[in-house]
């Protein structure tokens, strides 16, 4: 009963917050009959400021949004939610806070068992996958485990960047880092989808579609023991559910 909208990023260069995907966001919640969204702000430290930024954007979309951090009863808020939006920030902080508040399993149950729509961006997209091992963030806090919601049986690397051959930077490229994830002997490392800026996944039940605001945009797929492969916008990636 998956109903997911997973964005690589919240802001494109010179753009407003979530503006590049505004039509998609409005359609996603409208087709699922959602007018009120519960916002999960825990990837940032200043929850009030984060809520205001997101709330202002959603008001322009004609949607009501309220942050769970202002709730007097967290479990009741999750139980009554029409839909969720988990924003970007630090993925480790987000995951640890959800574990600390005992919210991870509660939200997971509502999404997978009750079919409640879930929208994620950046860190929120990381959390929709198996674990947060392929986030770009630094471990500023230590969650009890790196296991995430597991709505999808693979990982995502948001903000995926290609190596720039003209750069003087001598550190590892994103491709190198993700390949290292699959190089650990005897590890059951799931596939990783490198989701470039302006791209997103639309997931409905057992169908996964790659979408994007740039017509020639692609996503890069890393599978253990295989060559990386590019997938174009509008590709059906449902096969990833069976890998």
From TrEMBL:
Annotated GO biological process: proteolysis
GO MF entries: dipeptidase activity; serine-type peptidase activity
Described purpose of this protein according to its UniProt entry: Hydrolyzes dipeptides containing N-terminal aspartate residues.
Recorded family membership: Belongs to the peptidase S51 family.
Keyword Protease appears in the UniProt entry: yes
Protein's cellular compartments: Cytoplasm
NCBIfam families: PRK05282.1
Main location class: cytoplasm
Lineage: Eukaryota, Metazoa, Ecdysozoa, Arthropoda, Crustacea
Catalytic activity: Dipeptidase E catalyzes the hydrolysis of dipeptides Asp-|-Xaa. It does not act on peptides with N-terminal Glu, Asn or Gln, nor does it cleave isoaspartyl peptides
CC annotations in GO: cytoplasm
SUPFAM superfamilies linked: Class I glutamine amidotransferase-like (SSF52317)
Keywords: Cytoplasm, Dipeptidase, Hydrolase, Protease, Serine protease
Gene3D superfamilies (alphabetical): 3.40.50.880
Protein name: dipeptidase E
Its EC number(s): 3.4.13.21
């Amino acid at each position: 009963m998956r109903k997911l909208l997973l964005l690589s990023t919240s802001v494109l260069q010179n753009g407003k917050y979530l503006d590049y995907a505004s039509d998609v966001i409005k359609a996603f919640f409208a087709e699922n009959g959602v007018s009120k969204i519960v916002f999960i702000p825990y990837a940032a430290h200043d929850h009030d400021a984060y809520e205001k930024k997101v709330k202002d954007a959603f008001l322009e979309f004609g949607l009501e949004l309220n942050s769970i951090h202002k709730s007097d009863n967290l479990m009741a808020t999750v139980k009554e939610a029409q839909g969720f939006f988990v924003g970007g920030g630090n993925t480790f902080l987000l995951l640890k806070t959800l574990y600390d508040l005992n919210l991870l399993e509660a939200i997971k149950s509502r999404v997978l068992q009750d079919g409640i729509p879930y929208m994620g961006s950046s860190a929120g997209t990381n959390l929709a996958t198996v674990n947060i091992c392929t986030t770009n963030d630094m471990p500023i806090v230590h969650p009890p485990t790196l296991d995430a919601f597991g709505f999808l049986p693979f990982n995502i690397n948001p903000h995926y960047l290609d190596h720039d051959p003209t750069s003087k930077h001598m550190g590892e490229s994103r491709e190198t880092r993700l390949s290292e994830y699959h190089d650990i002997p005897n590890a059951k490392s799931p596939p990783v989808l490198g989701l470039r800026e302006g791209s997103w996944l639309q997931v409905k039940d057992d169908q996964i579609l790659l979408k994007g605001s740039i017509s020639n945009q692609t996503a890069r797929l890393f599978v253990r023991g295989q060559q990386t492969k590019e997938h174009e916008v509008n590709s059906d990636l449902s096969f990833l559910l069976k890998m």
